[in-house]
Write a structure and sequence with these properties.
Elements (H helix, E strand, L loop, with lengths): L1 H16 L9 E4 L4 H14 L6 E3 L4 E3 L3 E5 L2 E12 L2 E13 L2 E4 L6 H19 L7 H18 L4 E2 L3 E5 L7 E5 L4 E6 L6 E7 L6 E6 L5 E5 L3 E9 L2 E8 L4 E8 L13
Length: 275
């Protein structure tokens, strides 16, 4: 008899609320949450609202809870929560909803009223939004853009002797080598400066102290005018306007190849050093 009464109550509830639950409200999404903030906020919100603590697989971005018990229309119910996080969006949904019969727990196939669902889900949503409002999601593109900006800033400031994140620059006091840069990957770069002690006259690059040297020569404005390696020589000579002749020679002076190239309008270097 009790089972029939319960079934009747559920049926009546479904008929009364059917027009309001054509699409049952049993999940919500929150967008723009940083990965490092999402799970601490979830744990805190569930704890404060006395909901079961989620068991989370952070690598997969998924989680579930045990049963949460509540009463609807004088009938004991229970449900579980499923959590999914991907690309800055958190989705929390209820699943496995059951009601208590005189024979035990049975799956509840009737839709939950929007009011009842809102009573459970809305406080969770509101609390997580509040906890994560200052930690927006950053895409890989945005991260790359920020890193590029940081590298650009570092490059602008890495124009004097000092210790930097990836390399060290020292003034040598040598007339032929004014500056020496040593990189953490073992690369070595030496600079010979023009008389202004700011503009590069030449630089010599070595992959390591025992490797082949590549020398790049600059004009007085600091624009490249040639390159020398252990095998070839490259000369860049202006013809007229922005046109130049790029000629490749062997170490005996024989031409290997040449080509006409167009130089940029601004032929001043961005390699300048501070005193």
């Amino acid at each position: 008899m009790r089972t029939k009464v319960i079934a009747l109550v559920i049926l009546i509830s479904a008929i009364i609320t059917f027009s309001a639950v054509a699409q049952e409200y049993k999940s919500f999404q929150i967008e723009n949450i940083a990965a490092e903030a999402v799970w601490p906020a979830v744990y805190k919100a569930f704890q404060e609202l006395k909901l079961p603590r989620p068991v989370v697989n952070k690598n997969a971005g998924t989680g579930q809870t045990s049963y949460y018990y509540f009463t609807a229309l004088l009938i004991k119910n229970r449900t579980r929560f499923r959590l999914e996080y991907t690309q800055g969006t958190l989705t929390i949904s209820m699943f496995g909803r059951q009601y208590l019969t005189d024979k035990g727990w049975a799956d509840n196939m009737m839709p939950m009223s929007k009011k009842q669902a809102s009573n459970i889900l809305d406080p969770v949503k509101e609390r997580i939004i509040e906890l994560t409002k200052d930690t927006p999601f950053t895409t890989q593109k945005q991260i790359a853009k920020t890193e590029a900006k940081t590298e650009k800033t570092s490059a602008k400031t890495a124009n004097k002797a000092g210790i930097y994140e990836d390399f060290v620059i020292v003034r040598t006091g040598n007339q032929e080598i004014d500056l020496l840069a040593v990189y953490k990957n073992g690369n070595l770069v030496t600079y010979d400066l023009w008389d202004d002690n700011r503009t590069a006259k030449s630089l010599v690059f070595r992959e390591n102290k025992d490797s082949e040297a590549v020398t790049v020569l600059f004009d007085e404005k600091g624009f490249p005018k040639g390159m020398v390696t252990d095998h070839i020589i490259v000369n860049i000579s202006s013809i007229e306007g922005n046109m130049a002749d790029l000629r490749i020679l062997d170490l005996q002076g024989n031409t290997i190849g040449n080509n006409k190239i167009q130089l940029p309008d601004n032929r001043e270097t961005n390699i300048n050093f501070q005193e």
